[in-house]
Structures are given as C-alpha cells and as structure tokens.
Amino acid sequence: MRRIIHVDMDAFYASIEQRDRPELRGRPVAVGGRPNQRGVVAASSYEARAFGVRSAMSMAHAIRLCHGLEIVPPDFSKYRDVSSRVFGIFREVTPLVEPLSLDEAYLDVTENAWGEPLAVTIARRLKRSIKETTGLTASAGVAPNKFLAKIASGWQKPDGLTVIAPERVEAFLQKLPIDALWGVGPVTAAKLRAIGLDRLVDVRAADPERLRHAIGSYADWLIQLSHGVDERPVEPHRERKSVGTENTFAQDLTDRARIEAEIAGMAEEDADWLARKNLFARTVTIKVRYGDFTTITRSHTAVPASRDAGDLATRAVALLDRTEAGTRPVRLLGVSLHGLVEQPSDPAPRPSAESARLPFDE
C-alpha cells in the first residue's frame, strides 16, 4: 500500500510578505493588484480570510469586506525562490514529488531516502525543515492515496497535520460533505444535492445513470472516490497540458478592433512559448469576461497541431464571432492553447485524471 503525503504551504504569498515585513504580521493582507486598477486577489492571509477575502476575488470587493486590508503587490520572483527551496526539501526524501503549484505537492514516501517507515514521521520532519529553512508553515495530509491526502492536508490548516491510516479511511469518508472534494464547487454541489446527495458516501447508493445525467462523466470518478479508491500514482514529471495568457483591463473594452488586437497579441505570446518549448497545440481557447462578470469560453480544435503564431492568432480572433465582445463591454480577455504535442501529427495527449474528471463550470 502506498504512503502519500500532500504538503500545502499556508497562505503562501501572503505569509512570505508577512515574514519579510514585520508591520504586516497579524494584519489582514491581500497580495494582488490595486482596486482602482481592477486588481484581483492572488492570495490572502488568514487574518483577511476571517473577513471573507479569498483568492480570485476582485480587490475592490475585498476592501469592502475588510476596510483595514493591507494590499501588497506580488513579487513572483521571490515566491519562486522560496518555492524552489521548499521543493529541494521534498526531494531530499524522495524523487517521487509531483508539483501541483508553487506551494503544494504530492510525495510518495513508500520508499524514501530517510529509511523512515512511518509517513507521519516524515511529514513532521518536512514541516520542521520547511519552518527552519523558510520561516513559513505548511500543512500536511498523510494517507494511502492522493485523493485522501489532499483532503487531509486542508483539515487542520494552518500548520496542520492530519493522518488517515488505512483502518481509518471509512470513518473519514463518513464525515465528508459532498462539497469537500477538490473539483466539486458550488455548481456541481448544487446538482448533487438536488438529487439528494449531501455526503460523499451517499453517492454509493445513488443510481449511476441518474448521477451521470446530473454531472456527466465526473460521476464515475465520484463513485470511485466514495469508496476511498484512487489508484493514481505520484507523477514527478507531469507534462504541461496547456499554456495561457489573460489580462484584466482598467477600463471595459468596447472597441472590437482593440479587442481583436488584444486577443491576437495573447495568442502570439502563447505561440512564442510553444516555440521555446518545441511544442505544438491542437486547441485554441479564448476567455471573455463581460463587464457584469459573466464569463464564457470558446474553443476550436484543428489537426494537425500548430505553433504558427499567425494561424493561432487568426483562430483565436475568429472565436470572438461566437461571443458578444464589442457589443457588450469586456472586462477580461484570455487565450490558452491545449492538446500540446511534440510533433504536429502526434496523437492527442490523454488528459490527466484530474483534468478529465473535473467539471469545467467550476
């Protein structure tokens, strides 16, 4: 049986800023853009979260929730440096480290360089080493699989450690509400509750066809998780599935020519990344957020795959015809490229378990 640890740094960006600026310690802090420039919260301290301030929230809304909010512009080079040191600690114990972002990862410690038989002991040592090296706290979850480890790491934040031993898996599953799962956001949770499913274990007794009708292909994955089963290995060299660029504008865009120019520029920027990585993309997706915060996406897939900047930009701009951009004010635009392959004729890559099974509307 595997021994998996999921480590998640606590309020990573905000905690780094509080570490480096003593006057911010104990204060509600949001890392992100200025509210008068339509900034968005990239991260919030636990003091700010107490007021309801969350990542991806507009900064203007954040300051309405928390009048004493301290706003700090992000310093991603600093965050990447700290992340590199944290991941260096992870790799001291095992090469099986799967990054999920700058501040979280799965580790398979079934076999480990420390020769330690107990994953909980490894988790404690990792937390202590992170604290000594960076001055920051991390929360960890220890479990027989990735699904349970990820939920466990969030169980006692901040600076938490939760262990789900094999003999405790069923008792732990019985506690979980349906929206405790990563990927089950408000939309999917509402659909599940509408058919009488309030807890994860309720899925076991649900009619599979009714479940699929409610949430599509995600149903099969949910049934598996309801039994605590997750066979996904820790993958230390996860392939990049997509690349994207987006921008929130200080003033809503209403001029169609300007919107097309912005979209084309983003597509070309993404194409430059493909060229540097020697990759090709099959699918172009644009994202449009209107002035009222309604957000839509439109995609186009073509074979063979391409990395030609002109081709990708043309396809991205053409997707605007399937939106109301120009007739409705636009707050945000984005372009992303998916289905990345090493040769134009390569078969499309299989999506990861997470990307394949998570509902897109969340």
In short:
The chain has 362 residues and is an alpha+beta fold. It is 37% helix and 23% strand.
Report what the structure shows.
This protein has a 5-stranded mixed sheet with strand order 5-6-1-7-8. It has 4 domains: 4-10 and 79-168, Alpha-Beta Plaits (2-Layer Sandwich); 13-76, 3-Layer(aba) Sandwich (MutS, DNA mismatch repair protein, domain I), CATH 3.40.1170.60; 178-221, DNA polymerase, domain 1, CATH 1.10.150; 242-357, DNA polymerase, Y-family, little finger domain (Dna Ligase, domain 1). It is built from 13 helices and 12 strands. Helices cover 37% and strands 23% of the residues. Helix 4 runs antiparallel to helix 5 (119-134), helix 9 crosses helix 10 and helix 11 packs antiparallel against helix 12. The protein has helices at 12-20, 46-49, 59-65, 76-93, 119-134, 146-153, 169-175, 186-194, 208-215, 218-226, 256-277, 309-319, 353-357; strands spanning 4-9, 29-32, 41-44, 70-72, 97-101, 104-108, 138-143, 161-163, 242-253, 280-290, 295-306, 330-341. 34% of the residues are buried. The radius of gyration is 22 Å and the shape is globular. It has 362 residues and is of the alpha+beta class.
Determine the CATH topology of the largest domain: Dna Ligase, domain 1
Neighbour order of strands in the largest sheet: 5-6-1-7-8
Number of helices: 13
The oligomeric status of these chains comes to single chain
Silhouette? globular
Unreliable runs, pLDDT <50, ≥5 residues?
Answer: 350-362
Look at the structure and give the CATH class of the largest domain: Alpha Beta
> In total, how many beta strands?
12
Output the radius of gyration.
Answer: 22 Å
In percent, how much strand structure appears in the residues?
15-25%
Termini gap = 32 Å
The H-and-E topology, N to C, reads as: EHEEHHEHEEHEHEHHHHEHEEHEH
| Class derived from helix and strand content | alpha+beta
What percent of residues adopt helix (DSSP H or I)? 25-40%
Second-tier CATH architecture of the largest domain: 2-Layer Sandwich
Q: How much is the average pLDDT?
A: 90
Largest sheet report: 5 strands, mixed
CATH superfamily of the largest domain: DNA polymerase, Y-family, little finger domain
Domain count: 4
